[in-house]
Amino acid sequence: MKNITDSFLCLGSWPSAGSFGFNTDILATNPINLSVVLGVLVFFGKGVCASCLFQRLSDLLDNRKQRILRTIRNSEELREGAIEQLEKAQARLRKVETEADRFRVNGYSEIEREKWNLINSIYTTSEQLKNYKNEAIHFEQQRVINQVRQRVLQQALQGALGTLNSCLNNELHLRTVNANIGMFGAMKEKNN
Length: 192
Prior knowledge:
Elements: H1 4-7, H2 26-44, H3 50-167, H4 170-191
């Protein structure tokens, strides 16, 4: 059989004083605890009738119930406020995410637009450089052709003069020179 102190809510075991513990055996401790509580109530409530005692207990329980209900209501209000703040924060988050997406899309489209502008600019510059190159080549070709013409003409004139000098006598030479001077004079008058 168990010792009576083992069944009671003990404030420590007898042999090792100074420790504190609870007996978790509910079946053994509840009847003892209830008898102690009733004994304390009867002792302190001498002269108080049982109905008054129960009325007082009922009032205490009602007060406790009201405090619990107030705490629950306050908790509900706090919960509703927290839910409202959460909804506001989620709405702000959605708005910021939408704005961030808009900036991201605008940024990508701006980058794409700049890329195409750069490509078009490079293409235009490339075409201009090709045109300049072709013009330079054409100009250089014309210059070389003119130089070749001048050399050929010069050589032909020297060859013709050489031939004329060897074939012509002085009189024929003077007639040819006079005829050429006349031809140049007529051309000059025609141009003026």
